[in-house]
Amino acid sequence: MDDSMDEVVQEFLAESTEGLDQFDRDIVALESDPASAEHLSSAFRIFHTIKGTCGFLGFDVLEELCHGAESLLARLRDGELTLTSARTTVLLDVGDTIRSMLSVIEQTGHDGARDISHLVERLEALQVPTATDLRESKPALAPVGAAAGTAMAGESPGGAGGSIGLDSPPPPAPAAPPKGDAPGAAAATTPEEDAAPDLADPTPHLTERSVRVDVDLLDSLMRQVGELVLARNEVVSFTEAITDSAMHQTVQRLSLIVSELQEGVMKTRMQPLTHLWSKLPRMVRDLCSQFSKEVIIDMEGGDTELDRSVLEAVRDPFTHLIRNAIDHGVESPTDRVAMGKPRAGTLSVRAYHEGGHVLMEVSDDGKGIDTARVGAKAVETGLVPAERIASMSTREITDLIFSPGFSTADKITNVSGRGVGMDVVRSNIESIGGSVDVISRLGEGTTFRIKIPLTLAIVPALLIGCQGQRFAVPQPNLVEMLHIGTQASPAAVERIDQATVIRLRGKLLPLIRLEEVFGLAPAGSSGDDRAVVAVLQSDDLKFGLAFDEVYETQEIVVKPLDALVKQVEPFAGATILGDGTVALIIDVVGLASTAGLRETSERLAASGLEGSESEEEEREKTAFVILKVGENRTVAIPVDQVARLESIPTATVEKSGEIDVVQYRGALMRLVRLHEVLGILGHQTVPDAPLKVIVHESDHGPIGFVVADLTDVLEDVVDLTDVDSGYGLAGAVVLHGRVTDVLDLETAILWMQREGFFADAR
Amino acid sequence: MRALVVDDSRSMRAIVSRILRQLGAEVVEASDGRVALDWLEAGNRADIALVDWHMPVMDGLQFVSAVKSHPEWRSMAIMMVTTESDHEHIVRALIAGANEYIMKPFTADAVSQKLELLGLFPRTG
After folding, report:
1. Tens digits of per-residue pLDDT, A682-703?
2. What is the tens place of the pLDDT at every residue in A561-574?
3. Size of interface A-B (CB pairs under 8 A)
4. Which of A102, A256, A309, A727 is the most exposed place for a label (fewest CB within 10 A)?
5. A31, A16, A134, A15: which is closest to A75 by C-alpha?
6. Closest Cβ–Cβ partner in B11, B55, B105 for A12
7. Among partner residues A55, A71, A150, which is closest to B104 by beta-carbon distance?
8. Residues 2-21, chain A: which have Cβ within 8 Å of B?
9. CATH 1.20.1050.10 fits B2-116, yes or no
10. Do B18 and A8 make contact, defined as CB atoms within 8 angstroms?
11. Interface of B with A in 50-109 (CB under 8 A)
């Protein structure tokens, strides 16, 4: 190193030391005003300058450390993050480390082999926005794409996730925050807990509040708790036969403690979604540059916690949805501008709790799913027969994107468009007991909603029996339960070709008998009657499963099957019941494919035998008031057109010109004799007998229709046969087996107006 | 050739100046954009300015805009001295009128090449 270079180093040391002193002053000022742009910029420049100079002088380690601090400060300065105490602490630590490195440089001329990886990891972990950040800087979304911030240039792909340990070998996980913590508080403390153990200990209170635990240890704890739950169940079922009350109390206490312990252990395995999301901005940025798109990502609910195994399971499907949204969803900047949308698309990722599930939404404001195109493509590729598409609802067509091998992409990119995506997304999510939905509006965007259970280890299930054996059906797959063969049953068993089906509210569902599929009894040996049917849903397929007995619903502990029998499709695992026996857990998707149901279901669809279920369900029953008009004519009026039924004494009827009126609720009400309107001969009224009047609230106020008699109120699903009579007969219906004319009073009034019935009204 | 080095960091100025001197240039240093503009306003001229991005008082972009909007100073070439993380800013600087950029850390050769691209031949200047 020549003299002038030596001078530069001396200058660097002096300047950097001064800079760090200034940095200390900035931090102090920031403690009282954490958002001060002036001080954040100043602090940023100090690290920026040191980093820039290090590059020339070959101080690589120092450069890396400054880079981390600079990135964090850049995001703080830009308002993407807020200065929390955890972030202040790590920045101060960086300052101290740099100081000691500078003195090493002064003595030795180089920055030494100091291990700064933990500090760099902490810096990176603290760049993951928390709920607080998102709240604080709602409009300041993390920009990616063309306007990407400097912060995501972090080299370590491990990032925050790595340091907390989803994937790296013995990665310790942070202890879950104590029960009852507000979600926001939990999120805010996570980085601190993460950071704490690495510190020399400037903030001892943080160290005391959390410990790092090896993930393997957590897994083994979970297994043991599972065993304990099973043992508890056994004890409970043994003691049912014992009448000793002291024993019962002890068992109850044991039971309670085990439940709490199980809950506690499950909580420690919870990790916030930020582990999954922390890599998003970088990923979105890369995808944007790959597809020349501009996308702003908006994340909300990253502090929502999931069991780590669930988190792992949703990683790939989630990534796929993001890729899809950027590749297929968001339009190119020029297209967007042409459509009057903001140049940059918005991709929002949201998570929240609902029931025992976590919902994750991935929405884009892109072009949406073109159902016409999806339909055409489905016909073209032979996925759905052309004639069926016409009768499918928009929702059903949209759902086709989850079909295996489906793709509307005209050109295949290396990210998406090969059609090996959405079906895998759905099956991955469903394999963990979750579900995926899509809502899309053409031109406005698409939202994918993933519903996932909090944990995989313990699931609610229905225990069923068949030929003396017990099985567990996971609750999420269960749609409804039916008894077949009884009079009141809404479902009837039918046979089409080789397949047994049940007709449930007009819709044909394939029916499988558990004993036949599993070979528990010779096929066809059991009668069609007196069986219990569970309607199950797997993927887009609904089917009935017939068996003998229903026991109870229970939280079952899922035991994975041994590798030797794992490929046996219809089973997802096994569980041990209270009496110590083993029950196999039915994998609904696997069961459907074992029984060859998909083909049956397609045959059904093709056969045209089934009415469209959605249509059937949308058609509600209509209630009608049945009237006698004139001598013997029966007319039905929809109940919602009838405001009241009144009995009006003839004496109160007044004449106003040609028109009959009556004092009704403080005003005059027109009376119309319905038989006159309908051109029916009037019946002989008994003098002085009260008039039977239907009060209809029309736009002109109440109108009373005088009828001969009221006979009934009937309710039925009706098909109107259209008979346009002109004067208000809207058609005919078959009500309880009788053809009845339906009168639409509004139309009748319009007709009366045209015909001059109201000529001198009011 | 006379070069104006605008950087708030003493050590960076020292490094850049050292390289420019090696290339045979006469170097004037300014600790921020305001100081540099004052110097220009006093009637001084340089062939090129090497400008840092992040500076207090007046940052690199403001400096470029000020120079390029002044009829007499416009002919002075401007080279932005940036880091990789400032990549996006370069475009803005170029739009504002900067002529070149160079990414830290750089070698004397790299500076020499960029100067040649700008038509400045330091050794003969």
Report:
1. 665 666 778 888 888 877 778 8
2. 776 766 677 887 88
3. 57
4. A256
5. A134
6. B11
7. A55
8. 4-5, 7-8, 11-12, 14-16
9. no
10. yes
11. 54-56, 83-86, 88, 104-105
Q: Are residue A629 and residue A714 in the same domain, yes or no?
A: yes
At residue A382, the 3 state secondary structure works out as coil
Q: Which of A8, A16, A74 sits opposite B14 (nearest CB)?
A: A8
- On whether both A679 and A727 belong to a single domain, the answer is yes
Tokens of A387: 């004639």
What's the domain count of chain A? 5
CATH number of the structural domain spanning residue A519:
2.30.30.40
Whether A298 maps to a domain, the answer reads yes
Radius of gyration of chain B (CA): 13
Alpha-carbon gap: B12 to the closest alpha carbon of chain A (Å)? 6
CATH number of the structural domain spanning residue A253:
1.10.287
pLDDT attached to residue A716: 66
* Pair (A420, A507) in one structural domain: no
For residue A579, which of A228, A230, A255, A257 has the smallest C-alpha distance? A230
Residues A593 and A463 in one domain: yes
Q: Which residues pair with A512 in a beta bridge?
A: A545
Please check whether residue A259 lies inside any domain of the structure: yes
Given the cut 0.85, state whether the ipTM is greater than it: no
**Residues A526-550: pLDDT tens digits?**
455 557 888 887 766 788 888 888 8
- Residue-wise pLDDT tens digits, A647-676: 888 878 887 777 788 888 777 888 888 877
The residue of chain B with its CA nearest to that of A71 is: B85
Q: Which residues of B touch A42 (CB under 8 A)?
A: 56
Euclidean distance between CA atoms B82 and B20, whole angstroms: 17
Interface test with B, best of A1, A3, A15, A62 (most B CBs within 10 A): A15
The residues that bridge with A437 in the sheet, in sequence order, are A449
Q: Which residue range forms the structural domain that includes residue A105?
A: 1-127
Domain boundary among A453, A482, A517: A453
User: Which among B15, B88, B104 is the nearest to A8, CB-wise?
Assistant: B15
Of the candidates B18, B56, B104, the beta carbon closest to that of A45 is on B56
Among B residues 23-52, those touching chain A with beta carbons less than 8 Å apart: none
CA–CA distance, B27 with B11 (Å, rounded to integer):
15
Rounded mean pLDDT, A176-183: 40
Question: Among partner residues A7, A44, A150, which is closest to B14 by beta-carbon distance?
Answer: A7
Q: Which distant-in-sequence residues (6+ apart) come within 8 Å of B102 by Cβ?
A: B50, B79, B80, B81, B82, B110, B111, B114
- In a domain, residue A308? The reply is yes
Rounded Cα gap, residues A677 and A429, in angstroms: 62
Q: Is residue A160 part of a domain?
A: no
Closest chain A residue to the Cα of B14, Cα to Cα: A8
Domain boundary among A398, A432, A453: A453
At residue A527, the 3 state secondary structure works out as coil
Q: Which amino acid is at A433?
A: G
DSSP state of A721: B
Please answer yes or no on whether B9 and A44 come within 8 Å at the CB atom.
Answer: no
pLDDT range class, residue A681, cuts 50, 70, 90: low
The strand pairing partners of A353, in sequence order, are A358
Answer yes or no: do B85 and A150 touch at CB < 8 A: yes
Provide the whole-model pTM.
0.40
Asked if the Cβ–Cβ distance from A52 to B85 is below 8 Å, we say no
Average pLDDT of the segment spanning A374-402: 82
Give the pair of three-digit tokens for residue A433: 């007991």
Q: Percentage of chain B surpassing pLDDT 70?
A: 92
